[in-house]
Fold this protein.
Amino acid sequence: QVQLVESGGGLVQAGNSLILSCTASGSIFSINVMGWYRQAPGKQREMVATITSGGGTNYADSVQGRFTISRDNAKNTVHLQMDSLKPEDTAVYYCNANLRTTYWSTQRYWGQGTQVTVSS
């Protein structure tokens, strides 16, 4: 069984910063891609940022230059540094991991989500 546990959400004023963290635990053979997605009320879930085991990153255009994703492979942890937050960043943020529980088995797992609210 694999669990992804997120932390770091909350209420912040526009222009300020937050850091989200997510740790994967359980029966993990290896983790390929980790990332953050978000879903605002009435909208579809969208990719925010992803990072490969080798450190390659990908960002949504809306957060490029403001958000930074990083990863600690030894701790199965991914972080999202969010700077210059805007009210439109308000959403539930979900951690995601594409990982192997065995050499042959690759699955996608999701965290429970953490609320980020940015006030104007």
